Amino acid sequence: MGSTANLVSVAAASALALACGSSDKTVPFDDGQGQVAAAELGPVRVAYPAAPYGSRAGATIENFEFLGWKAPQDSAYDTTKLEPVSLGQFYDPNGAQGVKLLVMTSTAVWCSACKQEYRDMTGSISTYEQKGVRFLGALFQDDMSNPAKPSDLVLWAKSFNVQFPFALDPDLKLGAFFDVEATPMEMIVDAKTMKIVKISEGWVTQGDGSLWSDLDTLLASR
């Protein structure tokens, strides 16, 4: 009996070993404690810069998350395709994504200067994206100064042919960075560190003091 029991135990152990054994198709388990080859896990995850965060030039900006479209046109401005859009998506400490600067705009439907801003941006976005600049627009109020809704996002994106990530900010998360009465706001962030480089209020179409002039100066030093 003892010999038979031993044979059964060995067979069971062998079966268990086969069941739990690794195979070529096994996906490595990442418990967060060790390192697994990047090729096996996909894109390397990079931790966003730690606090403290601030709202002035020189400070690291918090990793805000909004609801919107990463690619409005590709989403056909469909509100059922709204998705999280976070600042962390633009963080590029090693230059792996080719992102040098992030430009964030804060906009309201009631703002006439914002409309001019978006008209001017339409013809310049692709030029600066080729130079390593990325854009993110946030819409915080409708034409009655009420919190922006998905329908407002659709109207604005279609009206101005928005070709960059565009999201809702009904809680005015970006309100700490500027005077709402001076809307629009343009913020330039260094994608390598997520530190705020410059914050501007209002809109200057071209020349000194314009967003384009500031970007040209900053890109020339990178």
Keywords:
222 residues; Glutaredoxin; seven-stranded mixed sheet; disordered N terminus
Q: What is the gyration radius calculated from CA atoms? A: 25 Å
Known CATH architecture: 3-Layer(aba) Sandwich
Main pleated-sheet profile: 7 strands, mixed
How much of the sequence lies in strands comes to 15-25%
Description:
By secondary structure, this protein is an alpha/beta fold. It has a single domain, classed as Glutaredoxin (3-Layer(aba) Sandwich). Helices cover 27% and strands 19% of the residues. The chain has helices at residues 2-20, 38-41, 112-122, 125-129, 150-159, 211-220; strands at residues 65-69, 83-86, 101-108, 133-141, 166-168, 185-190, 195-201. Strand 6 (185-190) and strand 7 form a beta hairpin.
Task: Summarize the entry for a quick read.
The protein is an alpha/beta fold. It is 27% helix and 19% strand. The radius of gyration is 25 Å and the shape is globular.
Reconstruct the topology from this structure.
Blueprint (H helix, E strand, L loop, with lengths): L1 H19 L17 H4 L23 E5 L13 E4 L14 E8 L3 H11 L2 H5 L3 E9 L8 H10 L6 E3 L16 E6 L4 E7 L9 H10 L2
Parallel strand pairs: 3-4, 4-5
Antiparallel strand pairs: 1-2, 1-5, 3-6, 6-7
